[in-house]
Amino acid sequence: MPSAVNLLKRLLLGRPLRSDRVAETLLPKRLALPIFASDALSSVTYATQEILLILSIGGIALLHLTPWVALAVVVLLAVVVASYRQVVHAYPSGGGSYEVVVRNLGRDPSLVVAAALMVDYVMTVAVSVAAGVDNVVSAVPQLYPHRVWLAVGVLVLLMAMNLRGARESGRAFAVPTYLFVVALGLTIVVGLVQLAAGNPPVAESAGWTIRPEEVDITGVAFVFLLLRAFASGCTALTGVEAISNGVPAFQRPKAANAGRTLVIMGILAIFLFSGVTALSMIAQVRVAEDPCDLIGFPTDCHSTGQRTVIAQVAAAVFGSGSVLFYVVQAGAALILLLAANTAFNGFPTLASLLAQRRYLPRQLHTRGDRLAHSNGIVLLGLVAIALIAAFEGSVTALIQLYIIGVFTSFTLSQIGMVKHWNTALADADRAERHRIHGNRLINAVGAVLTATVLVVVLATKFTHGAYLVVIAIPVLFALMRGIHRYYGDVRRELEPEPGDVALPSRVHSVVLVSTLHKPTLRALAFARANRPDTLTALTVNVDEVDTEVLRREWDRQGIETPLKVVESPYREITRPVIDYIKRIRRAGPRDLVCVYIPEYVAGRWWENLLHNQSSLRLTWRLRFEPGVLVVSVPWQLDSSHRRQVDRADRAPGHARRGITPPD
Amino acid sequence: MPSAVNLLKRLLLGRPLRSDRVAETLLPKRLALPIFASDALSSVTYATQEILLILSIGGIALLHLTPWVALAVVVLLAVVVASYRQVVHAYPSGGGSYEVVVRNLGRDPSLVVAAALMVDYVMTVAVSVAAGVDNVVSAVPQLYPHRVWLAVGVLVLLMAMNLRGARESGRAFAVPTYLFVVALGLTIVVGLVQLAAGNPPVAESAGWTIRPEEVDITGVAFVFLLLRAFASGCTALTGVEAISNGVPAFQRPKAANAGRTLVIMGILAIFLFSGVTALSMIAQVRVAEDPCDLIGFPTDCHSTGQRTVIAQVAAAVFGSGSVLFYVVQAGAALILLLAANTAFNGFPTLASLLAQRRYLPRQLHTRGDRLAHSNGIVLLGLVAIALIAAFEGSVTALIQLYIIGVFTSFTLSQIGMVKHWNTALADADRAERHRIHGNRLINAVGAVLTATVLVVVLATKFTHGAYLVVIAIPVLFALMRGIHRYYGDVRRELEPEPGDVALPSRVHSVVLVSTLHKPTLRALAFARANRPDTLTALTVNVDEVDTEVLRREWDRQGIETPLKVVESPYREITRPVIDYIKRIRRAGPRDLVCVYIPEYVAGRWWENLLHNQSSLRLTWRLRFEPGVLVVSVPWQLDSSHRRQVDRADRAPGHARRGITPPD
Fold first, then answer.
1. Residue from B19, B556, B574, B597 whose CB has the most chain A CBs within 10 Å, to mutate
2. Region Disordered: what ranges (chains A, B) (predicted)?
3. CA A563/CA B640 separation, integer angstroms
4. Which pTM was predicted?
């Protein structure tokens, strides 16, 4: 089995990379943009739609407010991009928000940011994949019933690609991002030209009306609805921080390249988001949370979904069956995959950093076969799959859980940056002071704005699912603190002290015997080779007849080592052996007991079903006895060689790694 | 966790029994009858119904043939009982059909019987539990939608009871069997008295007609249908052989007591089967495979089931809501549980016998905590649950798979008995020869009749599901032969030969080091205590910085043992260590290499998630290297003591077994 798993792993993941090839995986800007900016750019595919969905609660009457909500989002986006440009320059080591906070605000706030970022990464993957599938379904409606499975399949593919390593993903993903930006940009330009030519695009849903929900939307409720629409539109800001977490992956000068990439990304995001929002107004796109609220919806509203806003806009501009429509949809679907991929770059790096600092299990710091942090990738993928399954792949349901994490880390990192500039002010000359004052202002504005949005998001989304995140972040926080405390305790417990190295006074070897065959004889010979002070062959009398046969055979073969029989009235194996060993230990508390257990090693998995596994249980139990060594004496059955040859033959890449087959 | 599992096990299964209490579990006739005869007696609850279901294919026109079919079944039953009475006397060791065949016909036929019997036991459990649930549902129709879960629950309960041991099941089950026999006997007597009094019982379905299936039922097809009805009626014979498998559980004189119990059982079975069949004719019970074929069926035929024949007869005689009706139904349900219980007695005994002779995995010969063969019980229960789930608890569907196994073992054992008497004739005096001739005649008639029935069953049931059994029996046969061959091969491979006991020339100890802490120092001390010829501390250079820290710490603490660093360009642990050890082995092929691996032992399961488990992989891989011993040096973290105290406190029964808590 493991050899087949190995083969599969190699086929999916390719050859392992040598450590000294780490430097090769650095990214030029043209590759870094698609990898790290895709998250922010892809938000364009759903941000407008989420604003429209909230405003539609009041029917079509409130849709005219869309541009104002979008404008607020654009202003916020510009401020956040400016703020993070400063983070990239001030902290180019790739710690991003986390590093800013840990350096300036201390441990506990940094763990809050870490928890928020982890939630954020998970949600990026889940939302992006779900939205990507929605756009595929908008182009190919027949896939609607299979969309959850489609999303799961895409996630598995993403995991496999990322387990192959960063560089290869970058290349494979660059083309589609540029495709998306160009295709959507073209849509916006053509749409605006059509408008200017007096022939504005008209969406398929332009004629429909929306049944308003029976809720009060006057006075305070109206303001609340507007704020909720704004909070939903803020999904356009997700992913802006990704570049600040990826600075070390940039080519030198890292910070400058990263900063420039961030600004390009900001401009593109604002252009695309504004353009899509404008076109959706021009073409009079209508969407509702439940398609059954759409009066005019042509097919059965229970078994089909609405097309995404992007799809409706592209169809209005280019025509529903046109090649360019499909290009836009393919671009949207692919950039959303890229966005998910951003998280697959960011999450394992963050987890590894936290694991190195002993806030997460150290398995997350283990570098895997292809320089990627395999365990983090797998963990992220599995949690995202679980979320997609739990929310049946609904973008609107998932998005409620999304932006709290994002704005928590935004806010804390901006506060951290303000503190950073305060510290910098202390030992700065006059010219610098002026510059620093300016920088501090940007971050201060960012902090105030993002904190305000965080409060708005919390207030408007809490009951719509965001409460789950409000629970998850403190749980993660407590978990990380607990893990840290645990590692600290263990480390203190294991700190060497004088006197620890005392040699045991005597060594007692005990060989466990069930029948007299080659494995037993080998175990006896190996035990004797270690020259113990005493050597005993121990058997448990579970069956009188078997024991008598063994005793007679022992005498017949003239084996020097005495055979000790312990009784077992309850036919247990483990308990009598443990009791016997405890008696030895009690007689000489500073003595060492070596327990030799003969074991069969079989080459085929089913053979293990045919051998009694009682030794496993005993081995497990003996680990809890101090001063006892468990020595397993493997006997390789003929079939085990077959297996070794198999492995050597099958594993690809061994030859070029200079590994010779076992002799 | 294991301590909680232990507690649960003790609560469900009770205290373990001492080996020397085996004798106490022998059964007197009054307890043996309910345990071993329940299978045969319980068949009465469905045998009549199965005949009616087949004849109903021709509508109500053919129902007048029921008594003739039943008569044929009764004759066969009498012959088989007489045959098995001879088996019990000739082979009182409890091997039953299997032993008769292995002694007289040789290995391969005996394995066919063994396979047939195993299938038979599984089907007994599945059919009996399904039929029991049907009778419960007949009394409480509200349970109809939950019948599969009910059946699974019952099976789990049966497993638990049998894991407690044979004696206690006998006591708990005696009352219901007698209840069933008395209650159903009373029904028959009262029904016949009512008939004699000119007031015959009338079933609720008496007025319904049956829509005949659109098949030809003239000429050959008519004969075929009759034979199929007869084959279905032969389910009344299932379980007759159970007593022959249980002779050793009887009190002395075992054979005589078992023979007498068999005859009592035969008389009861014939009386009850004939009575139920007669009453079903008198009361004009109507059943059909699909209730929708019943014209007059009062409720929705898709969501409700028919009442069983037993239930309809009891309702006709006593009235549907009467106390006695419920008593009959309770009796029927309970005796069917008892029938399932028979298999839980028989299957593990057979499996243990086969495992002892190395035809099945030896785990099936391990005696468990309460003298029962736990693994066999669990295996049987799980397969039966799978069958019930697969066939959605339908008795009629399951019963198609039932009697092929039964009649295969009937036929082969009767042929074996004929051969037994032939052998006995060789050295018998004149008086004996006469008796033996008579005995041989009985078994010969039995053989011919059961062989004929086997052919009939195969022909009439093959396409209705019996083909599954026709596949299963050869598969089991081949599996058992394969297992036997495998054990033979391994035994030959492990047979000690002269020269095997040679001591290794030199012992090389290698201590694996990742960081310098107490576990490492302990491993070094323990390795040194074994006085190896060479001692090396080995570390794998996965991370340059970590390795450098280790090297410096090693020097600082002045550790004598040299630290050997092996490179690992691919950041693997396993491969470089294996390569290093292979080099040692190549330099001295007769040398022994002891690999010491420091390990943490934690008391709480989640702690294992926080420690790197790479040593497990290495340990597994090292087992395949000849001449290598893996020595795990456990370091008991403080939490591990907590666990030990827990276990000692919690496990019930330790005090009365004289086991003191660990110090």
1. B19
2. 644-663
3. 32
4. 0.70
